[in-house]
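Q: Could you fold this chain for me?
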Amino acid sequence: MKELWSKIKEALVSALPVTLIVFVLSLLPWFNFTGAELITFSVSAVLLVLGIGFFNLGADLAMTPMGMQVGAGLSRQRKLWLLLTVSFALGLLITVAEPDLQVLANMVKAVINGTVLVYAVGIGVGAFLIIAILRIVFHRRLSNVLMLFYMLLFALALMLAVGDKLDFLPLAFDSGGVTTGPITVPFIMALGVGISGVLGDRHSRENSFGLVALCSIGPILAVLVLGIMSRDQLTYAVPDYAVSSDIMGSFLHTAAHTAKEVAIALGLIVAFFLACQILFLRLSKRQMLRLAVGVLFTYVGLVIFLTAVNVGFMPIGYKLGNSLAGLNKWLVVGLGLVMGFLVVLAEPAIHILNAQVEQITGGYVTKRSMMTGLCIGVGAAIALSVLRIIFDFSLVYYIIPGYFISLALSLFVPPVYTAIAFDSGGVASGPMTSGFILPFAVGVCVGTQGADAVLRDAFGVVAMVAMIPLITIQLLGFRAIIANRVRERKAMKRILDAHDQQIINFM
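A: Sure. Below is the predicted structure, expressed as structure tokens.
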């Protein structure tokens, strides 16, 4: 209970800023929030804090240790085919069960068969999890692998442009963010730590990261291929974001539906871990009991968190964006910057990533510097996305130069920063982005360009959130290089000064 209370206090500090900004905006005359909307949002804010607290504790007790044990245990078998086969099955199963992917499939089912999309994306994640593990086994530099596959993505994007199907591009890059959700991210990150700890070389520190980065490419590639094969244009209907007057009923209905989805997704990971436990892990009863308690905390936390996002944050996010659409465009861009800066604090998996980064790097990359870089990056991503909606131009003008800069930076910064940066992009684009920021962008788009432009302009905001941190985190690497060189020069100057003084004293 002491650990849980500590996590809840951390969650309160994280979620309070975005909650306060919504309440402050509700006092302004441009927003006509009803009593039901304010009550629903208030209850959701409380549930959000509880959900993040339970989830973070569960991740510490279960998800991270499970991933590390499986990764290390599989690696000790010294059977590459077994490691790759099990990893592919893991990537496929947990992706197929990811709740956000089901939402994506339902959205485009008029053009692409939902089952085909789900399994195509799942195969993509499984295949790239294999590639990520092979990179660790054969000690390949992450930046080189990323360059190869992003060049492939850009080639497929060019084929979409030739076929006049660029509406698939924002959807494809958004899919890379929604598939690496809060269930899969802690497990996959810890899996990388476990594998690199056994099979890694002297560069195992940076090899611990990169699995999420590569697994995010699989869904993008899958949707781009489906877009090229599709003969129809995408269609999209704006959901009904109205808040129900039956507040209790909407919470209970959503909680029941969410509990079922999370149980399926989490159950697959647990079943996979139990199979590993029987085959080769053989952990003690005490360890298994601790993991069971952690899984329970993770389950409860995710159900509470996702219920709060779906019931309270999505409708409020949409109404904020729609109400702001008629105001000064630069005010809307500025608010997007502030909201992006604050919303990232409430992403549950962000705290898991930051803690793991600080631990793996031995404090070389601190939680504070990571959070600062992510806040700046996500804030800039939301502001740029709002700007794109207002002026109605293609996502291509952001994606191509943005990834070009990111990949170019990877050639000059320490490899650990590249690995962390590309992982942080997938982690930052979590449920708060898709559940609050995306509806906000849809609201702005409907208010400025109309509902027909949503697929073209509003979608892509998740892709931006996943891309901009790649630049900001790697810029931290440049800062580290400069700081190290300054320290070295100062140390050398002191040595030379001391040497000269000794010569003078001798003479």
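A (continued): The mean pLDDT is 81.
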